Amino acid sequence: MVRVDALLKALHGLRVGAILNPTSVTPDLRHMADVLHEARVLAALFGPEHGVRGDVQYLEEVADARDPRTGVPVHSLYGKDFASLTPRDEHLSGLDALLFDIQDVGSRYYTYLATMGLAMQAAARAKLRFFVLDRPNPIGGAAVEGGVIHPGYESFVGLWPICALYGWRRDMIYNETRLPWVMPSPNMPTVDTALVYPGMCLLEGTNLSEGRGTTRPFEIFGAPWLDAEKLAESLRKERLPGVRFRPCSFTPTWDKHARERCHGVQIHIEYARGIDAVRLGVASIVHARAQDEKKFRWRTEKYEFVEDNLGGEGAVPLVR
Q1: What angle separates helix 191-200 from helix 277-291, to the nearest 10 degrees?
Q2: What is the mean pLDDT of residues 46-64?
């Protein structure tokens, strides 16, 4: 969690542009925009996917606006095209530094990683200082899983040649930090969601519902034509570590199959450290597709401003 006194000392006298979202909170759960504004260093805000205050839904454009609490201008970093994902030169003019304070979830296609990288490049061109506030990887740092993006397949869900689930040298998971969980996006309600997301997000590239429009996105999935009992039974035979499967039915309120009864599976986590999330996602696609290959489809429309490139080498391409 952020040491506010040390941060404000480092920022003293600077005009700061801050890239924030709802997870940008202090130990007493104050939003960083309010803290920086009170310290008289906040000159501009930049809104990533879902916005500074987290009130913009999945794949919806974040508009330029003025923050209602601080009155500071908010510049969008998630607009209508790929160019909108990078801070514009005119919005950086007059600033001394950019600050990035967003909770990641340890998965390459969670868009905040690309937002940070593009902002770093823009700051370098504008000769601005760049501050990154450290926050723990909620799914730990011990696991590395999934395919790597190869040259020519870069996108907003994979700008650099890293795998789907990246780690480092710390094995603590978020539940062990005793820090409060603040949703980093509207469809990341719990730590359990973050644990399965690196694999279950692969379902975004299909016509299977990944549970958006329910209270358990990524933890449940299905489609109107699936047999829930058979799907759960076939997934159990995979003997995937750390998880159990329960057949379920649900009706998404929006997104894929909105207001249609879907049948599928809920994933229950038994042992967080044992989960192989990417294998879980691939197995879910394989077994769902096997029930009816004619009704199953890969997503073909534009996604995150480019064609779907979630899997990278070694993940979804293996099941096509």
Answers
A1: 60
A2: 93
